[in-house]
TrEMBL record, chain A:
Keywords: Ion transport, Transport
Residue ranges of the TM segments: none
Protein name as annotated: ATPase, V1/A1 complex, subunit E
Entry-linked InterPro entries: ATPase_E_C (IPR038495), ATPase_V1_Esu (IPR002842)
Organism the protein comes from: Linnemannia elongata AG-77
Record Pfam families: vATP-synt_E
Highest classification ranks of the organism: Eukaryota, Fungi, Fungi incertae sedis, Mucoromycota, Mortierellomycotina
Highest rank taxon of the organism: Eukaryota
One GO term describing the cellular component: fungal-type vacuole membrane
UniProtKB/TrEMBL annotation, chain B:
Keywords: Hydrogen ion transport, Ion transport, Transport
Purpose of the protein: Subunit of the V1 complex of vacuolar(H+)-ATPase (V-ATPase), a multisubunit enzyme composed of a peripheral complex (V1) that hydrolyzes ATP and a membrane integral complex (V0) that translocates protons. V-ATPase is responsible for acidifying and maintaining the pH of intracellular compartments.
Keyword Transmembrane helix appears in the UniProt entry: no
Species in which this protein is naturally found: Linnemannia elongata AG-77
Subunit and interaction comment: V-ATPase is a heteromultimeric enzyme made up of two complexes: the ATP-hydrolytic V1 complex and the proton translocation V0 complex.
GO CC annotations, alphabetized: fungal-type vacuole membrane; vacuolar proton-transporting V-type ATPase, V1 domain
Family: Belongs to the V-ATPase H subunit family.
The ATPase V1 complex subunit H C-terminal domain, residue ranges: 330-440
The name this protein goes by in its record: V-type proton ATPase subunit H
Pfam families: V-ATPase_H_C (PF11698), V-ATPase_H_N (PF03224)
Gene Ontology molecular functions: proton-transporting ATPase activity, rotational mechanism
Coiled-coil boundaries: none
Keyword Ion transport: yes
Length: 229, 447
């Protein structure tokens, strides 16, 4: 393009078009650079966010898993406790039934005269031996009075032979209930020390002391038990 | 749903290929008439196909949109199937022109082509890739432009298509016709925007070589420099590439050289952006090399200049800050090593500093004399007198501290070489090799 002659319209337009095209090209190139840079930064940011959220989700999931696990364990523990309780209650029920049955059986046993006679004389003597007093009082069923009168001399003699001491026996008016199983309550030391030798009281002691044996007979040994001596 | 914002600025096109040579060829071919009716009579195409072609032939812009917008998929299918079945070069040329017109300014229409994959997974790429192999001048060029648009528009670009396209571009980059080289680079500029294809290009045989060669040996125009370096810039967004680029192709020194002498701002702009990426994505790999070419000084210089583009200053300051921060921690040895590995030995401080050698000579011994061997190789193969002088000096310095290596050096042929260099035309080379051979023989002190 020479500056000597004036340009005609066509040349002017042509130059302008070239310049416009050039500027447009430069602008597009810069715009493209900006776009590329923006895209890359977006991708980095997106990747970062995704990674962060993935970590968060993982953490939340772990927490939920742990929570579920804890709840499962609590439920399991509760269930175990509940079933233990049921087991214990059932066993207790069985024992209660057993002892109730025994108490009723007691009454029939004491109806046998020969056995009851032996029992009465032995139990009075046993009570005397327990107390080792010189003066005692004795409580009994009203219906047993005749029997006791008959047996008492022999009992006293046996006591004397064993301990070389005499014993004085007072009869109390306070009788044992007639529907009881019999037996005696012997008291010494001014009524302060009592030996209750009725079948009911003896049964009560047995209920406590025989529990291990009863348990074994009814339920077998505990599967976890290790020591047997 | 597309949200229309009437005030929005037009979106940057995905594929930006504007090549006057190609446009000229296109214009010439457009003018030539094609006897479509004749083909229909010869049953090469059907009547329906003929009608469609006639409807769009010679139309562009608004006219074309009116015809095409309702039946985009039909046209995509039509053009691709014609490409597949017709063989005459002139018809292929015309169809390519028709496709390009279809896509011009309306890149969204590329989706019609991509949808063809549903009916045949090899489409739409197969027939276009076939065109790349054509012997004709025009067909491969035009097909590459269309392929570029389609690859750029695809959410998951086909890796096989990309591979083949890159094989083609690598060949074109070596063409004697600068317009063809220009087109190939523009194709790359656009396609490399797709993140997934960057590693493919990196691994494509000789692809990187072809690009690097343009910068290093062919004295390119500023526009070509810009375009090639732009390709590097996009590639360096990929971390692996950023780590390996300088190691394999030693691009940092030439980039800095070009930046120093560049007149056009956009060339400097894209170089600084590339350097920034290298530092951001792979500092350990690149900072040492940058220190070796005194980039810090250059950035200080750049930061005082007046720029019309604000972002250049941002990138320059970033580079400056990173280089300064690492300047302290970069031991001089790392700089020396970077220099050695790049083969560009110069009279930087370490070479003649006794302190440096006393402290660091063991490093050259490491890994079975790895660095010493490099030094020896440079001594044998370099032609630059400065490099030879520095290498000779370094050998001498080393052997003074490690006399036990003399035998090894003799086996390497270093001693021989140093003797040869004593009669080198360059004075410095002679001086330094005489000194080195003195140390090698076992004398003490310098002459």
């Amino acid at each position: 393009m020479s500056f000597n002659k004036a340009l005609n319209d066509e040349e002017v337009f042509s130059e302008m078009r070239k310049m416009v095209a050039f500027i447009k090209q430069e602008a597009l190139e810069k715009a493209r650079e900006i776009k590329v840079k923006a895209d890359e930064e977006f991708n980095i940011e997106k990747a970062k966010l995704v990674r962060q959220e993935a970590i968060n989700i993982d953490a939340a999931f772990q927490r939920k898993v742990k929570q579920a696990d804890v709840q499962r364990r609590i439920a399991q523990s509760n269930n175990i406790n509940k079933s233990r309780m049921t087991l214990l209650l059932t066993r207790q029920q069985m024992l209660d039934d057993l002892f109730a049955e025994s108490r009723t059986q007691l009454l029939t046993v004491t109806k046998d005269p020969t056995r009851y006679e032996k029992f009465l004389s032995d139990s009075i003597l046993q009570a005397f031996f327990r107390l080792l007093e010189s003066e005692v009082t004795i409580q009994y069923r009203k219906a047993d009075k005749a029997l006791i009168d008959k047996l008492l001399p022999d009992v006293k003699a046996r006591y004397l032979e064993a301990t070389k001491q005499a014993i004085d026996v007072q009869f109390l008016d306070d009788h044992l209930p007639a529907d009881g199983a019999g037996g005696v309550i012997v008291a010494g030391n001014g009524g302060r020390t009592k030996c209750n030798n009725t079948p009911e009281a003896r049964l009560a002691i047995l209920e406590e002391d025989m529990l291990p044996l009863v348990r074994d007979m009814l339920f077998g040994q505990s599967p976890n038990r290790r020591f047997f001596n | 749903m597309v949200i229309q914002n009437k005030d929005a600025v037009a979106e940057v096109p995905l594929a930006l290929v504007s090549n006057p040579y190609l446009d000229e060829l296109t214009a010439g071919l457009r003018a030539r008439p094609i006897p479509w009716e004749g083909y229909q009579r010869a049953t090469l195409i059907t009547q329906t196909e003929l009608n469609y072609i006639k409807a769009v032939e010679k139309k562009t812009g608004e006219d074309l949109s009116r015809v095409v917008d309702n039946e985009g998929p039909v046209y995509a299918d039509l053009f691709v199937s014609l490409l597949q079945k017709l063989v005459r070069v002139d018809t292929i040329q015309s169809i390519l022109i028709l496709i390009d017109d279809l896509l011009l300014d309306h890149e969204e229409r590329a989706t019609y082509f991509l949808d063809l994959a549903k009916k045949d997974p090899s489409l739409p790429y197969a027939p276009l890739l076939k065109c790349l192999r054509s012997e004709d001048d025009f067909v491969p060029l035009k097909a590459s432009k269309i392929l570029t648009t389609i690859l750029c528009a695809s959410p998951k670009p086909s890796t096989e298509a990309a591979e083949e396209l890159f094989r083609w571009t690598t060949a074109q980059l070596q063409s004697n016709n600068p317009a063809v080289v220009d087109l190939a680079v523009q194709v790359l500029e656009s396609v490399l925007r797709q993140r997934a294809v960057r590693p493919i290009y990196w691994n494509s045989p000789h692809a990187m070589d072809a690009l690097v060669k343009i910068l290093k040996t062919e004295a390119p125009t500023p526009q070509m420099q810009y375009q090639v370096i732009y390709c590097f810039w996009i590639l360096t967004f990929d971390t692996e590439i950023a780590q390996e680029l300088n190691r394999r192709y030693d691009v940092i020194p030439p980039l800095v050289e070009i930046a120093k002498s560049a007149i056009k701002e956009k060339v400097i702009r894209v170089i600084i952006s590339t350097l920034r990426n290298l530092v951001e994505k792979a500092p350990e790999a690149n900072l040492a090399a940058m220190a070796a070419v005194k980039l810090l000084t250059f950035t200080e210089n750049l930061s005082t200049r007046k720029w019309s583009d604000g972002e250049i200053l941002e990138d320059v300051n970033y580079l400056k800050a990173e280089l300064e921060e690492n300047f302290q921690t970069l031991t001089t040895f790392e700089v020396y090593q970077a220099e050695l590995l790049s083969g560009r030995l110069i009279w930087s401080p370490p070479h003649q500093s006794d302190l440096f050698w006393t402290k660091n000579w063991r490093e050259l011994k490491k890994e079975n004399y790895a660095l010493l061997r490099i030094l020896a190789r440079l001594l044998s193969t370099a032609s630059d007198p400065v490099v030879l002088s520095v290498a000779a000096n370094d050998i001498g310095q080393y052997v003074k501290r490690d006399p036990s290596s003399k035998k090894f050096l003799q086996e390497l042929g270093v001693k021989q070489r140093i003797m040869e260099l004593m009669s080198h035309p360059d004075q410095d080379v002679r001086y330094n090799s005489v000194n080195a051979s003195w140390s090698l023989i076992g004398g003490s002190g310098r002459v």
